[in-house]
Amino acid sequence: MFERAGMQNTGKAVKLAAAAAKEHNITHIVVASTVGDSAREALAAAQKAGLKLVVVTHSSSFKEANGLQEFDPALREEIEKAGHRVHTGVHVLRGLGRAIKDKVGWSDEDVVAHTLRIFGQGMKVCVEIVAMAVDAGLVPCPGNVVAVAGTARGADTVIIASTAPSHKLFDIKIRHIVAKPFNF
After folding, report:
1. CB contact at 8 A, 35 and 7
2. pTM for the structure as a whole
3. Which residue among 82, 143, 151, 156 is buried most deeply as judged by most CB within 10 Å?
4. pLDDT for residue 64 is more than 80
5. What domains appear along the chain, each with residue ranges and CATH number?
6. Does residue 26 surpass a pLDDT of 80?
7. Segment (H or E) for 132
8. What is the C-alpha separation between 34 and 134, in angstroms, rounded?
9. E-only strand ranges, the chain
């Protein structure tokens, strides 16, 4: 448990993730990373522990409709050359739902996202990146993964979850909460 949310927890979060994966015989860690800070820390932890890393980035044009990809391209190349994967795709709880919300004020995806945020922003993102990684064929399904995400920048939430694709989102089960912020 972290006292408060934020990027100051990133190093500890990825170490806890690697330890949880080893303890539960899980081969894959799925990490959310916007620009690359969390991915860089996770890469070191995954390599040290002999785990497979899947980094899930923001979709392109996440902030503005300009095609911009925020994730560091040199780090993407480094991660992929090391035999790991970086995935950029449509966010399960944002894509079409955001378009609907912008037109009518709410969407089903928005209700699910807000419900998951009861446990913190990192929990919502953990569930989302598990589904995104399955949709992209980057993690075993069925199976279990360790997911790492955070609140704004950095990582502060670590879970063990079963895997399922986005069209079966409610089949994802949070097996264990390894760490999350107390104050978020």
Report:
1. no
2. 0.94
3. 156
4. no
5. 2-60+69-157 (3.40.1380.20)
6. yes
7. helix 121-135
8. 19
9. 2-4, 28-32, 52-56, 85-87, 144-149, 157-162, 174-179, 181-183
